[in-house]
Amino acid sequence: MIRFKKKFLVPSVVSILIIILFFLQPAAILSLKKGLADVFLLPLKLTHSIFNEIKLIVSYRKLYRENLFLNKEIAPLHQQLSAYEEVFRENERLNRLLSFKSKTTFSTKAAQVIGRDPSNWLSILIINKGKRDGLENGMPVISDVSLVGKIIEVSKDSSRVLLINDPNFKAAALIQDSRDEGIVSGSIGGSCKMYFLSLDTDVKDNDIVVTSGLGDVFPKGLLIGRVIDVDLDSTGLMKNCSIKPATNLSRLEEVLVILN
Amino acid sequence: MLKKYFILAAIIFVAVFLELNYPRFLSLFGIRPDFFIIFVVYFNLHLKRKNAILFSGLLGLIKDILSFARFGTNAVSFMICSLAIDKIKSSVYQDEFEKFLQLALVFLISLLNSLIFYFLNIKMIAVELTFVKSLFFIMIPEAFYTTLVSPLIYTILKKCDLRYSV
After folding, report:
1. Which of A192, A238, A140 has the alpha carbon at shortest distance from B128?
2. Domain boundaries, given as residue ranges, for chain A
3. A244 and A225 in contact (C-beta within 8 Å)?
4. The pTM is what?
């Protein structure tokens, strides 16, 4: 009996503790988990910054040439910019006169991708900015091109981003040309689908899909991707379309979090 | 002895690093190998029983800390997997078929781990992911892919030579 106890004591106690934690999920444990995640992610952040430095050193010559070339390009662009500035101000004045609320400008926070969720069930990114940088749950995340996802968990120095190709992700969207509305969600295999399009929609391949702004989660007009296939849903009452995200989600290194 | 534990800690760090920062070309149709499972099988074949269960649980806890999934899922799952490996090992394991059994174990344990994960996180998993869809599009491809990658990891780990010393 004593031998039995010795043999199974440690695994049994550990198993019971884990099972209790698993079923109760107390808030204290969950906040401890967030804190510990920050600690575990610290070496990863360090490794990332070392890799980035090495990348910079390796690409020094290329960057130098690029810099010279871009400097030459800047001069005429400055002139164009001042002309556009005038148009922008005029547009602002006219908008104010018409009492239009500007929804196109938003402040962003740049963040680096430092990891991905260690499971094939979830498409989640881990970024190196958290509560300390003003990030909150539900904030939209974009790349330099398009919508990437939204924040679902924030700890002090890191956050988790649910990507648009995760089946749990949902966003109100519309087809830019036909203005048909639907819901964009992730699907198996890392692509996206737009659901609930009406039967008479004339959506076709290569149409651009953007956020519709409904629900106030995502600002209106954020690019999501392009339609690559249209089909009927299983009931035959609606149309669905497959979307190729504009950003390659498996190669993301930097993202922008929309703060307001 | 201390050196062996140091090697073990390094192995765990590498596992975590690979899991969070896997090389991007490794992702096929959104599926990537589960490096943790490869290490769990390795621990159970090469460490003493008690330590194997303990280290598997520890690896599971680390995965839980870094994952969005329900806390404790991976720790529970890895410990069950560890006990399963122990049972299989004691009943069918033979040295002459070591390589084949190692691969078979990785496949079976990866599948078992996915099944446990699915049922413990059923509330979190999207409605679209039915059991059959999950089985054919996530569980089996993941188990197959993990099995395919495992010989490479085991070749590297062989050089650590931790056999029953920890």
Report:
1. A192
2. 2-58, 106-260
3. yes
4. 0.75
**CB B27, CB A250: distance < 8 Å:** yes
Size of interface A-B (CB pairs under 8 A): 124
Give counts: helices (H), strands (E), chain B.
7, 0
Span A60-95, pLDDT tens digits: 888 888 888 888 888 788 888 888 888 888 888 787
Two tokens, residue A97: 């006169």
Q: Is A121 close to B125, i.e. CB distance below 8 A?
A: yes
Encode pLDDT of A7-16 as tens digits.
666 667 666 7
Interface contact A113, partner B, CB < 8 A = no
Radius of gyration of chain B measured on its C-alpha atoms: 15
Chain A contacts of B34, Cβ < 8 Å?
Answer: 118, 120
Write down the ipTM of this complex.
0.74
Write down the number of H helices and E strands in chain A. 3, 12
- Rounded CA gap, A26 and A22, in Å? 9
CATH 3.90.180.10 fits A106-260, yes or no: no
Contact between B143 and B117 under an 8 Å Cβ cutoff? The reply is no
Among the residues of chain A, which ranges form H helices? 2-24, 27-58, 60-97
- Return the amino acid letter for A73: E
Cβ-based contacts of B63 with chain A (< 8 Å): 118-119
Tokens found for residue A5? 């106890």
Nearest to B62 among A7, A40, A190 (CB): A40
